[in-house]
Design brief:
The structure is a homodimer. With about 450 residues, chain A is mostly helical. The first copy, chain A, folds into 3 domains: about 130 residues, MgtE N-terminal fold, CATH 1.25.60.10; about 110 residues, Roll (CBS-domain); about 180 residues, Tetracycline Repressor, domain 2 (Orthogonal Bundle). Chain A has 23 helices and 6 strands. In chain A, strand 4, helix 15 and strand 5 form a beta-alpha-beta unit. The first copy, chain A, is elongated. Chains A and B meet through helix 12, helix 13, helix 15, helix 16 and helix 17 of A and helix 12, helix 13, helix 15, helix 16 and helix 17 of B.
């Protein structure tokens, strides 16, 4: 290969050739090249014939394929798995971490999923079925049962011996959990402490009893926050009786946080979250995610037509009033959008709460006063350059102050109020606040105009 | 306390009382109560007099205070540290993880920071100074030098003994790095492997040579992606010669991802990132972050005034045209905002790249055709309910199709194009795309109106 830069076609040839030869090392090398070029291996594998995909999986072995699928998005991994023979798919699932396997199985059509699980080792299939019973966005849906635990009565050296037997299967042995015979969680022990202590110390004396735990039904975001806040490598998941069911490991935190941030961002942009990588989303899926909000916003915005018809008389008398409609409501929308996104993010990070409402309103109103002062001058100036007269300039200069203040106030109050009503504050998107301010902004505008311009009654 | 619910005032009294008694256990319990109530301990500590804060720090001890500050936002931690006597502050910094200490010192005014560092142990101060030399958003700015490393010639049991000596100081001993005498990184060994192997195995034979590393000057986001993608607990940071300088641990990933997501969200909302917790931001800071974009958007939006004055003749002849201005440009802006936020997020997650541009445009145009079809019918219907005539209904029905397609196209092309020009795509905020579509949307609207309504020339 030398220093030659490989093209996408070269990499395809490389992979196909490695599959033809059934050479696991060459396949791994081809995958590495694909990864290094920043390409998505899924796209290469998608294009293989079922027969080639099967030979690929066979040559690489179930363990390697399982590792690979674990790095993919669960929907992608499910697509690939469904194209493998049942027995093959079952082996791959067995080789995967149970929590990742459950995520993938959750994306396979139920009939196929059952068939694959029948082909699995009964114990592993059982484990998977238990995990599938929890909604994917709860602590239970994220946990893996592959933790290690020991009895409190062991000595440190006995515990190390016990670990040796189970370490192969465990996802992490950095934390060793201490359980009673009734499965209740007693405490936790770090591998670090176990190794660095005297061999004859008792587990009971080494363990920390005050353990952070999370309820199996809790939201996955709560688990991520606990792991993150206390820099934990793993968090034990317990039922209401305090029995240990599984653990959530630190490598899940990033996935959870990314997923939640993506949902927030997409809601703030004014659509339902996609829940699927963008490039895999069909136009019809994008349509379905976007049209409900567009229609809702349309209905809300349609109100502006009513407002404007109501002021038809003023508009006919002073057509120049129309010149400033987009500018005034646009500026109001921009201020609202800035405020709302900052606040929704701060709420997502747990920085603000309902009891901070007064502080927030005060802060936002003070900010809006400064913004309004600057924008008022600029708007008056713009009116002058359009040669619409000083009266019109005063109308728009005053209107922009009122709209900016009104918009900031609404944007400051709405997210926290919605959360109080148990509505996700991220639905107060930039488009939502813009729409809300458009109609009310026009009422403000024409009321000010009527007062200052002294338009005669019709 | 029994089962009684504590109020905020109760918790303040509890804390103050514990400080008065100089009782570390009671202070810790008060902090736990504050934490459990979901309160921010920073707000409690901020309100203590300097003397009380000093007594608080003295009673709790430097180690505990260091742990506590490590959980705070660096700006908050810096504020508190500055209120402590120099010698006290130095002790606390020494007790903190070096990477966290560096983040905090970076937020202290330089003169005070130097004074505190002079009061520190020379070696620890030196370590801190080295870390401060790297920009905070690079791998170097995030790393900690508190890793453990061994020589490749040791046996496993000797390595465990060596670990015992340094484990106290290290941030993690889950990965043990293997270094040559010239400090080059040779490989890595997990604590797990070291413990579970035969005591007389050589480190050289146990270590994995193919280690993921990151260059000290690389972006912190790159480090987070590597750690996340490969589920690593720590990532070694090297210089261009391959010498090991420090490690970035998994607990930093969540912080990095949250910080980057926050910046993206705030940009998408149309303001400069705050870079500081919302409640600590002064109105003037919020003003400074928001006014540049508001003014830029104002100037761009001012163009709509020019467009409307240009079509003054059409507006005078058919005032009803004005009724639909907010509805049409609002809908265009909403479609653009949906598209742009979804795309910018997908780019942030590394899901789409410039070479996907054609696929993206195709996908967005197909989606927009479906959206336009539905919205066209609805818009025509709305025109009918406003009793403006079938001709006007056709004008707005056709206009909404064109505006939706145009808006989707612009929103699909712009983020990737900007990235090509090395501009952060997140500046294409919802307000930005709305503003862009407002002016061009009006041109489309009046052009369609002129053609269909046959308005006589003036």
């Amino acid at each position: 290969m030398g220093g030659r830069v490989l093209t996408e076609d070269d990499r395809r040839v490389l992979l196909r050739d490695a599959i033809d030869r059934g050479d696991a090392t060459a396949i791994a090398e081809a995958l590495r090249q694909i990864d290094e070029a920043g390409d998505d291996p899924v796209e290469y594998l998608d294009q293989l014939s079922p027969r080639d995909l099967q030979r690929f999986a066979h040559a690489l072995g179930a363990d390697e394929v399982g590792d690979l699928l674990g790095e993919f998005d669960p929907t992608d991994a499910a697509d690939l798995l469904e194209r493998l023979p049942l027995a093959h798919a079952a082996d791959v699932l067995e080789a995967m971490e149970p929590d990742e396997a459950a995520d993938v199985v959750g994306e396979i059509v139920p009939a196929t999923a059952s068939q694959i699980m029948v082909a699995m080792e009964p114990l592993e299939a059982e484990e998977l079925r238990e995990l599938l019973a929890y909604p994917p966005d709860t602590a239970g849906g994220r946990m893996t049962p592959a933790y290690v635990s020991v009895s409190p009565e062991l000595r440190a050296d006995q515990a190390v011996v016990a670990l040796r037997r189970v370490a192969e299967e465990a996802e992490t042995i950095n934390y060793i959990y201490v359980q009673e015979e009734d499965e209740r969680l007693l405490g936790v022990l770090s591998l670090r402490n176990l190794v660095l202590t005297r061999p004859d110390s008792r587990v009971r004396d080494l363990m920390i009893e005050d353990v952070y735990t999370i309820l199996v039904t809790a939201d996955q975001e709560e688990a991520a926050q606990l792991l993150n806040e206390h820099d934990l490598l793993a968090l034990p998941v317990v039922d209401s009786e305090g029995r240990l069911l599984g653990i959530i490991t630190a490598d899940d935190v990033a996935d959870i946080l990314e997923q939640e941030a993506t949902e927030d961002i997409e809601r703030l942009g004014g659509s339902q979250p996609l829940e699927e990588p963008y490039l895999r989303a069909t136009p019809f899926l994008l349509f379905r995610r976007r049209i409900p909000w567009l229609l809702a916003l349309f209905v809300a915005e349609a109100y502006t037509g009513t407002v404007l018809r109501h002021f038809e008389h003023e508009l006919s008398n002073a057509v120049a009033l129309a010149f400033f409609i987009p500018l005034l409501i646009g500026t109001g929308g921009n201020v609202g959008s800035q405020t709302v996104t900052t606040l929704v993010r701060a709420m997502g990070l747990g920085q603000v709460r309902i009891r901070d409402l007064f502080r927030i309103v005060r802060k936002e109103v003070l900010t809006a006063i400064m913004l309004a002062a600057v924008l008022s001058v600029v708007t008056f100036g713009r009116a002058m350059t359009l040669h619409v007269g000083v009266d019109m300039g005063m109308v728009v200069g005053i209107t922009v102050v009122l709209i900016v203040l009104w918009s900031a106030l609404v944007a400051a109050v709405l997210p926290l109020t919605l959360r109080q009503l148990k509505i996700d504050p991220a639905v107060v998107s930039a488009p939502f606040i813009t729409t809300l301010v458009d109609g009310t902004g026009l009422v403000i505008y024409f009321t000010v105009a009527r007062m200052i311009l002294h338009i005669p009654n019709s």
